[in-house]
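Support reply, case 0932

Customer input (verbatim):
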Amino acid sequence: MTTPERQLPHNDIPDGTQWPGSDTLVLLNRQLHPEADPSKLSRFRDDYWDLNPAIFEHHKRSSSLNFILIPAELRQATKYYIWQLLNHPEPRAVASRPGRLSVATVTILFPASLQFVLKWLAEQGVTEFREITQPLLDDYLEALKDEEVSIDRCYRRLTEIRRLWAYRDILPASMRLPDAPPWAGEDTRDLLGRTRGDRENRTRRIGEATMQMLLCWAIRFVEDFSEDILAAHAEHLDLHSRMPEARRRARLTGQGGHRSGELKQKVVAYLEDLRRRDEPLPGRRREDGALEIHWQHLAAVLNCNAQIRYTVPGRMVIESGLPVGEQAYLDAPITGLLDGRPWRSTRIGRDEASRLARLLSTACFVIVSYLSGARVGEVLNLRRGCTKRDPATGLWLMEGLYFKGAEDEDGNKIPEGQIRPDPWVVIDLVAGAISVLERLHPHPVLFVNRIEPYLNRSRGSKRHGEARSDRVMASDLASFTTWVNAYCAQSGRSDGIPDDARGALAPSRFRRTLAWFIRRRPRGLIAASVQYGHAHTQMLQGYAGSYESGFPDEYAFEDWLFRLEGLTEDEQALARGEYVSGPAADAYRYRIAAASREFGGRVLKKERQARDLLGNPLLQIHHGKGMTCVFDPATAACQLRGSLGDPMVTPDTDDCRPKCPNLARTDRDIVQVERQAKELAEIVDDALAPPIRHAREQHELTRLQTIIRTHREGVDPR
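Our regenerated output:
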């Protein structure tokens, strides 16, 4: 569908502005994907613009603009304006970021903000952009405040008016807003009286119980079930590959290319094998619910034509006396164990193989995305061969493309992305999951949308990317959870994946959740499989630890929240009369009191603010096992985590030294010390203990008893 073109006077077009004709390409000055078909590129006259030819990210959803959504009286002017956003080489300053808008950004702002702005203007009788006056913009601001939309959407809709004004000098006079900037250039946060980025709009982390079990089952899939699923899926693909060839051979020879009597012998052997294994004939249910022999599967197994049912060998199958099963089971055996027993009682059915392969791929995504700290788009664009072990350090490195921040010297986005110069440093579990993906399918992209090679791109699909989108992956996460919980219900297990009260699982929530887990290190069901302290050390090397990755900001925010919670608990304990001993006791009491005055009621608007504030000495209180570190990096006796100049530097509380001047001990710490002393006393009382061990434990017990005694007596054990 096209909209009649309204011609503009040629002399009304500013110098330096290229003006499109009806046949002009929509993506005239944009880099195009190698697979783009030139004959199918959108033209200016079209009301539906396909922007997929300029999208290089494999995980991006289909990108297009539908101008039918724009009021008819403003539609043509909007097309001219959007065409300039896409093709004019010189961007106009609207925000702080340089460079012209990316194609993906245009596809977001159009339906999310611009169309609502233009709809409101059309309702006020506006037919040309030049009719937009300052009083009208004041009315729009008041109407926007009255709408029940999020603060983020309010910001975006005001930004689109500012953008339309910023591009006025490259548009004809009839499309220009007034010379004066909208709302006299007043800042958006002052206009709305609120700041974008409030806590309620933050990405929600996944609840502890949900994330623990989601990761637990993902690990089970990769470590316990993957060999069985890989073997079954490979057999499924092999059987599928035989079917077209068998049909072609049947058309040529009449019976699958077998010599006389050979197919009968195959059928006899096949039936005997089923009897020996006490298994039914391969079957499936018809639409009416009745069971029937799965002749296609049988033909693939016997390497013959599906018309075997109408032959003598087919009659032998029908009259074999064997029952017809619910499934056509594959030959791949079940070798994986769960709690010491096979994870399923039957072999995998042919119709299950593809679904289990998809679930296995989803499990790999959970592990790779969650335990690498990479952005969702970076994970979904990972390619075969992306991991390698560094021979010098023994660390696993994961390489891939990044898109956020990939810009040329002019600040324009590089659409095809760039290879990250600093790779992610990942733990063995991540490398193992990637290895499973590389065995699962032959595609270059690891998280491919269609795992089976014989599946073609959906008819009418315009996106060039082969990877799953974030929306599809969210659906796969829901399917994974559903399968696990159904499996647990059928098996009588109680370790399913509970619902997350904070909302549906989404890939974008993994990074914030990982930051929380690393900071809190909860003791859960997967503590033996994933050591978060180890993951922290690995990840903060290489790309995930660089501030360009964004992950340290996520971690800093969780660290900020954790420390404030600890300060609140410490302040309440002191108010109840808790005693503190140790060389840093006075510093501890001072910091608690001062921090309460300094940070009480403070609201952070950005994660990076948390990172900067973490360097404040008042926040340097770290609780360990039976001790509290009032941290001063200049005098700390332990091995520091990080460098002295980094606000994220912390003490290694697992490496606490008894004579460190940063030590303090609260009553809560002494309870833990007493517990340790009790355990050591039992060992010391063991008459059969080796003398060397007895002496070592006696020395440690004496030290702990001294700490307890001096604390109880209120004496500082300097």
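We compared this against your earlier run and they match. Two observations from our side: The longest strand covers residues 663-666. The chain has four domains: 10-201, 237-337, 341-545, 550-713. Please reopen the case if you see a mismatch on your end.
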